[in-house]
Design a protein that fits this description.
Blueprint (H helix, E strand, L loop, with lengths): L1 E2 L4 H9 L2 H4 L15 H9 L2 H7 L1 E4 L19 H9 L5 E3 L4 H14 L7 E4 L12 H5 L4 H17 L4 E2 L23 H16 L14 E3 L18 H8 L1 H8 L4 E4 L3 E2 L2 E2 L4 H11 L5 E3 L8 H4 L5 H11 L4 E2 L3 H11 L5 H17 L12 H6 L4 H14 L1 E5 L13 E4 L25 H8 L6 E4 L11 H10 L3 E7 L18 H13 L3 E6 L8 H5 L2 E4 L7 H9 L64 E3 L3 E2 L3 E3 L4 E9 L5 E11 L10 E10 L4 E8 L6 E2 L5 E3 L2 E8 L8 E6 L1
Parallel strand pairs: 2-3, 2-11, 3-4, 4-5, 6-7, 7-10, 13-14, 13-15, 15-16, 16-17, 20-28
Antiparallel strand pairs: 1-26, 8-9, 12-17, 18-21, 19-21, 21-24, 22-23, 22-27, 25-26, 27-28
Helix pairs in contact: 4-15, 8-9, 8-18, 9-11, 14-15, 18-23, 19-23, 20-21
The structure holds beta-D-glucopyranose.
The site of beta-D-glucopyranose has 10 residues, from loops.
Length: about 750
C-alpha cells in the first residue's frame, strides 16, 4: 500500500496532457507560512481588544449596494453614518456586497486616516459568475468539462471586480452536489469530486492570478467548508449526516485542491456535520484544515452562521456561540456582530484566551498583507479602471465563448439540429425569451441586466433577415398567462419550426431554492403539450440551475439542449449552437433523473449487494416505477456528428505500485460533420476494504475530429489515481483488479481490466 493524499499534482495528472489543463499552469503564489511577521506582531501588540474584535468582524455594505437584498435574512443595515463611525473606530475589518470606487475610497480613507491603527479595510463580494458581465453559472461551465475556461472566466470576473473596488470574492463554491433538489447545485461544479477538483483549482488560479498584489486579482474563498452539498434531502441549511470516509473522499478534496492552489480564505458552512455545526467545528476548522493541511489563510463564517449556533442547539447564547466559534478556529464573524459584542468580555473574563484572538487577528492581517493592502490601501480603487475594465470586448467575447461551451445537446433525433438560418419560419416560445432580468442567472446581483442578450435578440441577429421569427411567451414561469397558450399555438401553427424555451426562472435555483420536484413547472408543461400537439418539428431549450426530470412533451421532443443560465451572452451563444455556427461540446456534470424521486442520483454510486441488472428484477435495489438508470447520464453530450469508440486497451495486464499504465482507445468521427468530443477515463476497483463506486472519473481529453478522422486517446494511470480513503481515513491504494474505461459518458463503453500488484 502507498499513502496518497490527493495533491494537486496527482489530481490534475489525469487531465494534464489535455489541452485544457496544460493551460492551467501553476502560478508561484507563495502561501502564508510565517506567522511571526514583525510588522503584524507589532500591530497586534498595540491593538486593544475592541480593535482586535473589529478586525474579526465583517458587515454587509449597505452604503454602496443599491440593488435588491442579496442575502436571505435581513442585514443589520447600518446607516452610512454608522458605518463610517465604525470604520473610524476600527470596529470593522471590511464590508461585503457593495461595489463602487468613489465611496470605496472614502471608506478606505476613513480607515487609514482615522482608525486607531490605520488598518486598511478589505472589500468583499459574492462574485460567483462574473460581476457586470454575467458569465454562465458555475454548473453550466462545469459542463464544458474545460477547467481552463473557468480559469479565464474567473480571471475576467476578477478584472471587473477589482475595477469596481473589490478585493475578495466569496467564491468559488466547491461543494459537491449529488442531490439536484439542492438549489445551490447551480453554484458548484456538479456531482463529481474529481471534476470538482479541476474546477476548484482553475477558479482559484483565475481569481488570484500569479500575483495577488497586482490589483487586478482577488482573494478566493472556496466555500462552504464543509459538506454543505451533502445536506439531507437536498434541503438548504439541513444537516449533513455522512460517514467521515465520505466526507474525506467526496466532499473535502475540492477544498484541499483549492488550498494547494493557493486559496487563502474559506467560509464555514451553515450546516452541521453529524451534529456539530461547521462554524464551531474544531475538527474541521482546526484539526483538518490547519493541522492536516497546513492552511494559513483565514476562515470567515457564513452570513450570521455563528449566531445560528444557538438555533442549532450547539450554543446557549451569544457569548457561548462566540467562544465556541473562535475556539474552533473561526477567524471572522460575518454580519451577526457577535465578535464585536462578546469577544472583548470573553477575553477579560478568561473564557477565551487572548492568544486565540491574536491568532485569528494575525491570520486576517496576513491576508490583508498578502493582498498588498498595507502597501497600497487604494489598490483596486481606481476611478479610471471602473470605466475601462468593465465589459471590455475581451470579456464580452469570453462570456459568449463560455456560454457556447456550456451548452449540452441531450438529444437530436433525426438530426433536427442545427436549424437552417434561412428558408424556414421559426416560432420562438417561452416565458424567458424577452425577460432580460432573468438572464444573468442566480447569484449575479451586480450584473448589468440591460446588456444581456435575450434569446429573441440572439435569434434575430443570427437569422437571415428574410426569415419570419414569431415570438410568444406562452406562459409565465410558474403560472399561466391569460391567452398565453392560444397565442403561442397560433405562432407555432404559422411557423415551420418551433423552438420552445422552458424550465426554471433564475430565481428557482440558488440559495434557499430547494425543490421537491425538479421538473418543468406545470404551467409551462401545459404550454409544451399544446405546442407539441401542433405537430411542428420542435426543439426544446431547457433553462435551469440544476438537472431536471423531464416529462411528456418536453422529454419527447426530438431535440433538447441543456442551456442552464448562460449569462450576458445567452441569446448569441444559444443561436451560435442552434444554427450550427458553433459545435455543441458540453457534457453533463450532473446526472439527469427520470423522476425527481430518484435523487440523490449520481453516477459514482456503490453497487449494493442486490444491484438492478435488468429492468424487472424483484428483490433488487430499485424503485417500482422506473429503472435506476438516469434519463441522461453524467458525461453525456451529443455532437452534430456521430462517433465511435474502439475497445479500451491497457498497456499491460499487470501494473506495479511504482509504475504507470497506459490506457488507450481510438475515437472516430463516422459522421458527416466535424465534432468536438470529450473522451472520459473511468476506473473501478472490484474488491476493496471499503466498497468502491461502480465507476469514477479520472481523466478527460478534448478532441477535435474532422469527418472520417480518427484519433487515439491515451491516459497514463498511476497508483495515486487508484487510491481511496480507507478506514484509517488515509488515502491509500490497494493491490487488486481494476476495470478501466475510455468512454463518451459514465454509462457507456466496455472496460479493460488490469491487476495492480505490490
Ligand atoms: C451564502 C454565502 C454568501 C454569503 C454572503 C450567504 O447567505 O450562503 O455563500 O457568500 O451569504 O453573501
Amino acid at each position: 500500500m502507498i499513502t496518497f493524499s490527493p495533491s494537486r499534482r496527482s489530481l490534475l495528472k489525469g487531465a494534464a496532457a489535455s489541452a485544457a489543463m496544460t493551460a492551467v499552469a501553476a502560478p508561484a503564489l507563495a502561501r502564508l507560512r510565517a506567522p511571526e511577521d514583525p510588522f503584524i506582531e507589532n500591530l497586534i501588540r498595540t491593538m486593544n481588544l475592541e480593535e482586535k474584535a473589529g478586525q474579526l468582524s465583517i458587515f454587509s455594505d449597505s452604503v454602496r449596494f443599491d440593488g435588491p437584498p442579496i442575502n436571505p435574512t435581513p442585514a443589520q443595515t447600518q446607516t452610512r453614518d454608522k458605518l463610517f463611525d465604525d470604520i473610524a473606530a476600527g470596529r470593522v475589518t471590511g464590508v461585503f456586497n457593495g461595489i463602487g470606487v468613489e465611496l470605496g475610497r472614502q471608506m478606505q480613507k476613513a480607515a487609514i486616516e482615522q482608525s486607531p491603527h490605520k488598518i486598511p479595510l478589505i472589500f468583499a463580494a459574492d462574485v460567483i459568475h462574473g460581476l457586470k458581465t454575467a458569465m454562465p453559472i458555475p454548473l453550466a461551465e462545469a459542463c464544458s468539462f474545460d477547467p481552463e475556461l473557468a480559469m479565464r472566466t474567473s480571471r475576467a470576473a476578477a478584472l471587473e471586480a477589482t475595477a469596481k473596488g473589490i478585493h475578495w470574492t466569496f467564491a468559488p463554491m466547491v461543494d459537491v452536489a449529488r442531490d439536484e433538489r439542492w438549489g445551490r447545485a447551480a453554484e458548484g461544479h456538479g456531482e463529481d469530486t474529481w471534476l470538482g477538483c479541476q474546477f476548484a483549482v482553475a477558479r482559484v488560479k483565475g481569481f488570484q492570478g500569479h500575483d495577488l498584489k497586482d490589483g487586478k486579482h482577488v482573494l478566493a474563498c472556496p466555500k462552504h467548508f464543509a459538506a454543505y452539498g451533502a445536506v439531507q434531502g437536498g434541503m438548504e441549511y439541513n444537516t449533513a449526516d455522512i460517514p467521515e470516509t465520505t466526507l474525506r473522499e467526496v466532499h473535502l478534496p475540492p477544498f484541499k485542491a483549492a488550498f494547494d492552489a493557493g486559496a487563502l480564505s474559506t467560509m464555514s458552512s451553515f450546516n452541521d456535520v453529524g451534529g456539530v455545526p461547521s462554524t464551531a467545528n474544531h475538527y474541521l476548522l482546526t484539526d483538518i484544515l490547519r493541522g492536516e493541511w497546513g492552511f494559513h489563510g483565514l476562515v470567515v463564517s457564513d452570513y450570521t452562521s455563528d449566531e445560528e449556533l444557538i438555533l442549532h442547539g450547539y450554543a446557549a447564547d451569544g457569548p457561548d456561540a462566540t467562544a465556541k466559534a473562535i475556539t474552533a478556529g473561526l477567524d471572522i464573524s460575518m454580519q451577526s456582530g457577535f465578535y464585536n459584542n462578546y469577544l472583548p468580555d470573553l477575553v477579560r473574563s478568561g473564557k477565551v484566551p487572548m492568544a486565540v484572538v491574536d491568532r485569528a487577528v494575525r491570520r486576517v492581517l496576513h491576508v490583508k498583507k498578502a493582498l498588498g493592502l498595507f502597501d497600497n490601501p487604494y489598490r483596486s480603487l481606481d476611478l479610471a479602471r471602473e470605466v475601462s475594465d468593465i465589459r471590455t470586448p475581451e470579456t464580452v467575447a469570453l462570456a459568449r465563448e463560455a456560454a457556447r461551451k456550456s451548452i449540452v445537446m441531450l438529444k437530436n433525433d433525426g438530426g433536427l439540429l442545427p436549424l437552417p438560418k434561412s428558408g424556414k419560419s421559426i416560432a420562438l416560445i417561452g416565458p424567458c425569451i424577452d425577460d432580460k432580468a432573468d438572464y444573468p442567472g442566480p447569484w449575479a446581483a451586480f450584473s448589468d441586466i440591460s446588456t444581456c442578450v435575450t434569446m429573441t435578440e440572439g435569434f434575430k441577429a443570427a437569422l437571415d433577415p428574410s426569415v419570419v421569427l414569431t415570438t410568444a411567451r406562452g406562459s409565465d414561469y410558474e403560472a399561466p398567462l391569460d391567452g398565453g397558450i392560444e397565442a403561442a399555438v397560433a405562432a407555432a401553427r404559422a411557423s415551420d419550426i418551433v423552438v420552445l424555451v422552458v424550465g426554471e426562472s433564475s430565481g428557482m435555483s440558488g440559495e434557499a431554492e430547494a425543490r421537491v420536484e425538479i421538473v418543468v413547472p406545470e404551467s409551462q408543461m401545459r404550454l409544451a403539450e399544446a405546442i407539441a400537439d401542433v405537430g411542428k418539428p420542435m426543439v426544446v431549450l431547457l433553462r435551469h440551475g440544476r438537472a431536471l426530470a423531464l416529462h411528456g412533451a418536453v422529454k419527447n421532443a426530438p431535440a433538447i439542449l441543456a442551456t442552464w443560465f448562460l449569462g450576458a451572452e445567452t441569446g448569441n451563444a444559444v443561436a451560435d449552437v442552434v444554427f450550427g455556427d458553433y459545435l455543441p461540446q458540453g457534457r453533463l456534470a450532473v446526472s439527469f433523473p427520470q423522476q425527481s424521486g430518484q435523487e440523490p442520483l449520481y453516477y459514482n454510486h456503490r453497487n449494493t449487494g442486490r444491484p438492478q441488472l435488468t429492468d424487472d428484477m424483484a428483490f433488487k435495489a430499485r424503485y417500482r416505477e422506473v429503472t435506476n438508470a438516469p434519463l441522461y447520464p453524467f458525461g453525456h453530450g451529443l455532437t452534430y456528428s456521430s462517433l465511435t469508440y474502439s475497445d479500451t486497451q491497457v498497456s499491460a495486464a499487470n501494473m506495479s505500485m511504482n509504475r504507470s499504465l497506459n490506457v488507450t482507445a481510438t475515437v472516430s468521427n463516422t459522421g458527416a460533420r466535424p465534432a468536438h468530443e470529450v473522451a472520459q477515463l473511468y476506473i473501478h476497483e472490484r474488491v476493496a476494504s471499503i466498497t468502491q463506486p461502480v465507476r469514477q472519473l479520472r481523466g478527460i481529453k478534448h478532441l477535435d475530429l474532422a469527418p472520417g478522422q480518427s484519433a487515439q486517446v491515451a491516459f497514463e494511470l498511476t497508483a495515486a489515481d487508484l487510491a481511496h480513503v480507507h478506514h484509517d481515513l488515509k488515502w491509500e491504494t490497494d493491490v487488486g483488479v481494476f476495470d478501466v474505461w475510455i468512454a463518451p459518458s459514465a454509462t457507456e463503453g466496455k472496460p479493460a481490466t488490469f491487476t495492480l500488484k505490490a
